[in-house]
Amino acid sequence: MSATLTRPQAGPGRGAAVRGVLAGAVRSREIAVAVVLILVVVAATLRNDSFVFSSDGWRDLLLTPSILLLLAAGQMLVIITRSVDLSVGSTMALTAYLTGRLFIDQPGIPIPVVVLAGIALGAVLGVVNGVLVAYAGVPALVITLGTMYIYRGIMLTWAGSDRITADQMPREFLALGTQQVLTIPVLTILAVAVVAVVGYYLHTARSGRELYAIGSDPAAARLYGLKVPTRVLTAFVLCGALAGLAGVLHAARYGSVTSSVGNGIELQAVGAAVIGGVAIFGGSGSVWGAAIGAVLLVTINRALPILGIPEFWQRAVVGALILGAVVLDRVLALRRARRLDEEREH
Description:
InterPro entries: ABC_transp_permease. This protein is mainly α.
């Protein structure tokens, strides 16, 4: 969006413009979530300044959400089409274990090959979900709930009680989880770069914009001639590929892989997207909102113990955020529908 520079004007016109900007900021879900995130960080820092103002605190603040950032970005792509992918945690586990096995079974294998293998496996698992949802017409909740258990069962059978440790993986690969550039972890830079690419795709590529159209009204999208099944399949493949990348980076971040990797993280990914303003009923939201939601979700879990809040209330706060986001989304949707009805009447 371009802007034209003009001479500032005094009077009501300028005041109205300022009010318009402020009103737009208030309506922005991303800004609202970012403000909540800042307040949480400030509150935790006031209680314990090492939360931010220490090398470990600053590093953890940026590094800890990185994996969830990737999963939330992939989940957002699926949710805007009125679907959901509950199998991302199991997909991440399989790709994390594949990463470790490749380094063990193929000594000297190039790191980029391992990364691509993880992404490819995630994409293949996403194809399974996408085909069943888009072409078989089975609800995504049912399909991905089933594949979540299937993929996890494959992981348990394949890995068993085996544990891949840091000494079995190259130091150059593990450095991805420890290296920093100007105090910013490399893993965080990679995650933000991926989120930026997804955002660029959604707002510039025709197929990306069509995902929103499909989520807004699937029937109208079909009448308009959009390739709905193909686009939904694409969303699931991209979600699976990002979960695959998350699995690879999980192995680098923690230096070990067990069969319990990713347990429960699929719900965190959904929660992060919803908290970040992605409409659970599809058609609206941004990948940046999902990313901020992921950071907020992880930061709250780190900050609440510092603030002396018991574990039960920690979970309750997260649940309240998710419920509040869903209720707000419905209220805004009803207001938009009412406004459209009033415009038609006039």
